[in-house]
Specification:
By secondary structure, the chain is an alpha+beta fold. It has one domain (about 5-100): Protein of unknown function (DUF1491) (hypothetical protein tt1805), CATH 3.40.1530. Helix content is about 30%, strand content about 30%. The chain contains three helices and five strands. The protein has a five-stranded mixed beta sheet, sandwiched between helices. Strand 2 and strand 3 (about 50-55) form a beta hairpin. It is globular. The mean pLDDT is about 90. This is DUF1491 family protein.
Length: about 110
């Protein structure tokens, strides 16, 4: 199965969040075709989580992008981690979603 480009996936994710009544914004545009996508979840209670692409072996068993929890902490620690990731990969995408229920609306790897 063909993989969706990063820009197409992010666009669909943002539209679905808006349709579901959630606030989601694109904070950083990465490489159009294959930039890694990171998602910051703000629970609006002073806590946040950062999701990163799952390892390639687990990421697309059925063609769907999969994510793994990278960090669950306070928003400042999340921002520090994002800054470190950007130094490593300047082509990454960063999407931020607000959801009080803590649901990032992502396909997650188990374990």
């Amino acid at each position: 199965m063909a993989r969706l480009t990063s820009d197409f996936w992010v666009s669909a994710y943002l539209r679905q969040a808006a349709f579901d009544g959630l606030v989601a914004v694109l904070r950083r545009r990465g490489a159009r075709e294959a930039g890694a996508i990171f998602v910051k979840l703000d629970r609006l209670d002073g806590t946040a989580a950062l999701y990163a692409p799952a390892p390639q072996a687990l990421a697309e068993e059925d063609g769907e992008r999969r994510f793994q929890l990278l960090l669950d902490s306070d928003p400042l620690a999340i921002e520090d981690r994002v800054a470190r990731e950007l130094r490593f990969d300047s082509d990454l995408w960063l999407v931020e979603i607000e959801n009080r229920t803590g649901d990032p609306r992502l396909a997650l790897v188990s374990g």
